Amino acid sequence: MKSSILRQAVILALFALLPAAGEAIYFRDKISWRSAIAPSEMVTVEQARGLGDTVIWVDARPDEEFASDHVPGAILLNEDRWNELLPQFLAVWSPGKKVVVYCSSLSCNASREVVRRLRKEAQLSDVFVLEGGWEAWLKKNR
Amino acid sequence: MKETSNVQRPMLNTEPAAYPTLGVGRSSNIVRFLWRTLGLVVAAIFIFAGLTKILDLDHLIADLQQLQFANALADLRNVSLAKPGEFARDIDNFKILPWPVSVALAFYVPWLEIFCALGLVFRFLYRGALSILSASIVVFTLAIIAAKVRGLDITCGCFGHASQHWSFPSHLATNLTILVALVALLFKATSEIRRQIPFNSR
Amino acid sequence: MKTPILAFTLSMIMCLGARAQLKWEQTTIELRPAPNDKQAIGHFKYENTGKTPIHFKSVHASCGCTTAQTQKEEVPPGDKGEITATFNIGDRTGSQVKTVTVETDEATNQKTVLTLKAEIPQQLEITPNFVFWKQGDKPDTKTINVKVGKDFTVKHIKVTSSTPDFEAKVEEAGKGEFKIDVKPQDTNKVVASMLTIQPEDSQKVFYATARITNAPQVQ
């Protein structure tokens, strides 16, 4: 009787593989199997550092937080004053540059929104969210 | 399926018709009905759990919680696939498995849950389905406990983002209740096989 | 046989029906601010339906753009009140979802997430709002698409360039859509221009940027 439960379980497990594989194939370009950093989305502090001089750091936090402290050389670009700050950022950008956007921590959403708008509105590529945000940068740099 | 060994066993005649009194027959019907209902409820839970990971049901669930049925109907019409990687990230947040395994499970587990739940509904590969679901609930529960012990702040992802704000005790209680139900159903099914009740369609 | 079933049903009901003392009238509020509004405010009303007072341990918003205020720190039994969530819209557009997490000292259900959804109307959707040519590239025309928001009617738009280095011409594509053709005089110098896009009969202005950039360094 035990083997029949096992056999049933194996058959079910195999059945479920089919739609799962189909879904994996359908989304093959939207998710990276190699690392949690989807190719089009996030980078860790180490990865950002590895990009060297091609990186433009963008701070998506409110004005006061930027004023209090920020990544050296970072440009402020938040949604509160997007229309005013975007042209200033675009003046600094050039093709080939990689943009790394951060907000306060892993759980804040501001950097994701800024990345989304840069990709959608300005149609820039190579724009990434810094995983862990300002908190993560501080841990590695201070 | 090799059930031939059972043919040698004495058949316990538990057919309601064998009992003289109507009362006993009716009560065993009610009992069977309750077991069947339990099975369907558990199946519904797992179908829901699977669907919340495959489809983006956040809006729908929020509207249902607010009892805004008109909005819910609109959401149903606009339902789309969930963003891939969301559930994978939830699994990855437990920091137990490597990322590629999290991705594979994120694609696989919801379908496994749905197929097993359908097995419960249609009584097809029934015991296999129950055992897989029991095993998976045990694994989820251990993972939640491990995360709590390590102080990780996680979204379980068990019921999609609907469960992200549940407290640890509610999560644990829900999982254990489901596990008890599954194990009970499994024992029931196993004992039915042993006694050769005709309603068991394996 | 029957007793275990009864036990299940009871425990399931008890677990799934963990009752909270603090009852919220709504935990999700959807707002539709007017185009010129600077804030969207949601009033989340609650009532203490329990027998003991409830204290707010913390109330914090998901982002810096949203502030939340309780009227009181302690809610006596039977009392009502509200948490006011103020979302500063800034230059945000489209569907915005902001949350406020409320923590209380209740026995069960200590955390509640209040959700504020706001649909920010956008008069013009400009894609892309940035066009560029690399130094030395052919000075081809690049097109910016302008789409009028569904709650608005715009018959004409006017586009001006802040410098004479770029020429901008508007084409009406019909059905609330326009095309702006941008062409640089040449791509020899690194220059930038702000394109001002103004809908007819509207005070509001929108912007796009045109630039000649450095050629990327060979990597």
Would you tell me the overall average pLDDT of chain B? 77
Largest interface: A-B, 28 and 35 residues
Count of β-strands of chain C: 17
Alpha carbon gyration radius of chain C: 27 Å
Discrete helix count of chain C: 1
Notable characteristics:
heterotrimer; A: 142 residues; alpha/beta; Oxidized Rhodanese, domain 1; 2 domains; 5-stranded parallel beta sheet; 5 strands; elongated; C: 219 residues; mainly beta; Immunoglobulin-like; 5-stranded mixed beta sheet; 4-stranded antiparallel beta sheet; 1 helix; 17 strands; 53% strand; disordered N terminus
Structure description:
- The complex is a heterotrimer of chains A (142), B (202) and C (219).
- Chain A is 48% helix and 13% strand.
- Chain A has 142 residues and is an alpha/beta fold.
- In chain A, strand 4 (98-102), helix 5 and strand 5 form a beta-alpha-beta unit.
- Chain A is elongated.
- The relative contact order of chain A is 0.15.
- Chain B is mainly α.
- Chain B has a two-stranded antiparallel ribbon.
- Chain B has one domain.
- Mean pLDDT of chain B is 77; it is low at 1-9, 11-22 and 159-164.
- The model of chain C is unreliable at 1-8 and 11-18 (pLDDT under 50).
- Chain C folds into two domains: 20-120, Immunoglobulins (Immunoglobulin-like, Sandwich); 124-213, Immunoglobulins (Immunoglobulin-like, Sandwich), CATH 2.60.40.
- Chain C has 219 residues and is mainly β.
- Chain C has one helix at 2-16; strands at residues 22-24, 28-31, 39-48, 54-61, 66-70, 74-75, 80-88, 94-104, 111-120, 124-127, 130-134, 142-148, 157-161, 166-174, 177-184, 192-199, 206-213.
- Chain C is 7% helix and 53% strand.
- In chain C, strand 8 and strand 9 form a beta hairpin.
- In chain C, the strands form four sheets. A five-stranded mixed beta sheet of chain C has the order 2-9-8-4-6, with no helix packed on it. In chain C, strands 1-3-7-5 form a four-stranded antiparallel beta sheet, with no helix packed on it.
- The termini of chain C are far apart.
- The chains are: A alpha/beta (142), B mainly alpha (202), C mainly beta (219).
- Chains in contact: A-B, A-C, B-C.
- The interface between A and C is medium-sized, with 30 and 27 residues.
